[in-house]
Amino acid sequence: MKGQIFIWDEYLLKCGSTIELSQLPFKILSSYVVSLDYNQRRVLVCTMYGDVVEVILTEAGSSKNIKAQRINTVVRMTARNNKALTILSQVE
């Protein structure tokens, strides 16, 4: 399905959350996801027209929260065994 990201539990048994890019509280140019990268509780989503959205997953007790923000700069995420670099280029 176009523009949907499914967040699964750690055992991949059930879908815990669904993020619909069209329902985010800010405007994006495209909801067609071309790449996805993750690091612990952060997910970077890149769309066809150059949008980069950072999604942060948090848990407080039994409740799970998802916070999303548009990234307009270069973002680097590092982990013990994983490094990722995403560059946003302006589409004319």
- Mean pLDDT score: 76
Radius of gyration: 13 Å
Count of individual domains? 1
Beta percentage is: over 45%
- Name the helicity range: under 10%
Structural class: mainly beta
Number of helices: 0
Shape: globular
> How many strands, what sense, and barrel or not for the largest sheet?
4 strands, antiparallel
Tell me the total number of β-strands.
Answer: 8
Q: Span from first to last CA? A: 27 Å
List the strand order in the largest sheet: 3-4-5-6
H/E order of the elements? EEEEEEEE
**Low-pLDDT segments:** none
Q: Describe it for me?
A:
The chain is mostly beta strands. It has one domain. The protein is built from no helices and eight strands. The chain has strands spanning 4-8, 15-20, 33-39, 42-47, 52-60, 63-70, 75-78, 83-86. The strands form three sheets. The chain has a four-stranded antiparallel beta sheet with strand order 3-4-5-6, with no helix packed on it. It has a two-stranded antiparallel sheet with strand order 1-2. A hairpin with a 4-residue loop joins strand 7 (75-78) and strand 8 (83-86). It is globular and about 35 Å long. The mean pLDDT is 76.
